[in-house]
TrEMBL record:
Residues 199-301 form the Phosphatidic acid phosphatase type 2/haloperoxidase domain. This is PAP2 superfamily protein. The lineage of its organism: Bacteria, Pseudomonadati, Pseudomonadota, Alphaproteobacteria, Rhodobacterales. It comes from Litoreibacter janthinus. InterPro entries: PAP2/HPO (IPR000326), PAP2/HPO_sf (IPR036938).
């Protein structure tokens, strides 16, 4: 009688490996790619996939056939791993680290809704306050969405390939590859995950209808997501990643053409965000709110990594304007712009350095494009 009889069914448990549709941070090995919900960038990453039935049976019959050559008696006494230590992180599957990062960051997030404003705090400090747009503003903003539809044919490939986390687009600019930049890609995924999480908190509180629910003439080119429009999670994620990657580039100091790459990273965040308006699923004001939220989250993550303490609180009051990335960047830099976009930059937000984020940051720092690391400077 087979000692392990019936275990074959366990092969299905490996299905857990497929929970986020990612495969690995080697889905970072797909580079980062794809968790359709925008929340699954780590789920299943690094897990062992399901064994097929033949392999499961083969393993158990082999175990029965060779076990007799081993010694009898008790098992050896093992050396214990260090408790509660970052020394164990490299031994963990990617999705396990993702869960730890999320817990470490989100435990310090607070939220409050007062009237038509939602405020998200970080370590007790105001991070972002976003005011709810009026119903009439939704109607006015719908015209921008209709006008952007002219770009759909040109941007269709971008829009459809950016439905999940568009990590590959940042990888293109920063010359990232899973073989060289595993932890840089993990840092990108971490940032996207935090941004998506906080964006959903704000969306839930503000509860704004999508453009196609306001104006039937918009006719989106992709499926309208099943959650609120404001703020844009794609804008939050894009600007959050841009903020963190700009900080990492500063720390790397390994690109001779760093000025051009920095400009491209900023422009990419703008384009990813605006593509959602082109697609017909976001108003320009969603992008203003998302960019503000992403910028603040990215700054808080850099602080948690012990990189910089440049995060600033931001308040956004929606206006009937289009989104302009260069004006947003000017506002973040403390410059004056000719139009009132409703963005107010507040005081600095301090982050307590974290062992978990510090470990990841250190790993990413070691992946700089230097001759020592085998890459082209």
């Amino acid at each position: 009688m087979a000692r392990y009889g019936g275990i074959g069914g366990i092969g299905g448990i490996g299905g857990i490996g497929g929970i986020g549709g990612i495969g690995g941070i080697g889905g970072i090995g797909g580079i980062g790619g794809i968790g359709g919900s925008g929340l699954g960038g780590f789920l299943g990453a690094g897990a062992v996939g399901a064994y097929d039935q033949a392999l499961t049976v083969g393993l158990q019959t082999t175990a029965e056939g060779i076990e007799h050559v081993t010694s009898e008696g008790p098992a050896p006494v093992p050396t214990q791993l260090p408790e509660n230590s970052t020394a164990n992180l490299a031994r963990s599957a990617d999705w396990v680290r993702g869960s730890l990062y999320l817990t470490d960051f989100v435990k310090d997030i607070g939220s409050a809704v007062v009237g038509d404003q939602v405020s998200l705090s970080f370590e007790g400090q105001n991070l972002v306050s976003i005011n709810r747009p009026s119903a009439s503003l939704l109607s006015e903003q719908a015209k921008f969405v209709r006008d952007y539809a002219d770009l759909r044919a040109d941007r269709a490939a971008e829009i459809t390939s950016q439905l999940g986390f568009p990590t590959e687009y940042f990888a293109m600019i920063l010359a990232l590859h899973p073989a060289h930049n595993r932890y840089t890609l993990e840092l990108i995924t971490v940032t996207q995950l935090m941004c998506a999480h906080l964006a959903m908190m704000a969306k839930y509180a503000l509860a704004i209808r999508r453009p196609d629910q306001v104006d039937t003439r918009i006719l989106p080119m992709i499926a309208t997501p099943g959650h609120g429009s404001f703020p844009s999670a794609h804008a939050t994620e894009a600007y959050g990643v841009a903020t963190v990657m700009l900080g990492l580039m500063d720390a790397w100091q390994s690109f001779a053409d760093s000025t051009d790459r920095r400009a491209l990273v900023k422009q990419l965040a703008n384009r990813i965000a605006v593509n959602r308006t082109v697609a017909g699923v976001h108003y320009p004001m969603d992008t203003w709110a998302g960019a503000s939220l992403g910028q603040a989250i990215g700054g808080a993550i850099l602080g948690r990594c012990s990189a910089t303490q440049d995060a600033k609180s931001i308040t956004y009051t929606p206006q009937n304007t289009d989104f302009f990335g260069h004006d947003f960047e000017a506002l973040i830099a403390g410059e004056t712009v000719p139009t009132d976009y409703g963005v107010q930059i507040g005081s600095g937000v301090q982050s307590t350095p974290s062992d978990l984020f510090g470990w990841l940051w250190h790993k990413a720092l070691q992946e700089a494009h230097t001759a020592q690391n085998g890459a082209i400077a």
